Amino acid sequence: MNQQQFENFTASTLYCKTCKAAMPVRERLLLVLPDKEIFDYLCTGCASSVGQREVTAGDKLMALAARRRRRAAPAHQLMP
Ligand SMILES: [Zn+2]
User: Fold this and answer.
1) In 22-56, which positions are buried (b, 16+ CB within 10 angstroms) versus exposed (e)?
2) Does the pLDDT of residue 46 top 90, yes or no?
3) Which site among 21, 26, 59, 72 is 20 to 30 Å from 66 CA-CA?
């Protein structure tokens, strides 16, 4: 249940008070700090801010490592 809630929070739909509904949101980089970045979530319906998310340096390293792992997948295996 907790896992489900966490996934809902990171999903691209958030409740908008102005639209009074769960709306698709757009992520916008709001602030870059030495140890973290802050993202703003904007409602695609009325363009008002419906939430914020902080990405710490640790999170970024993990995302980077995951991306590197994916890119390291050998493409040359398609060769006959
Ligand atoms: Zn809205």
Assistant:
1) ebebeeeeeeeeeeebeebbbbeeeeeebeeeeee
2) yes
3) 26
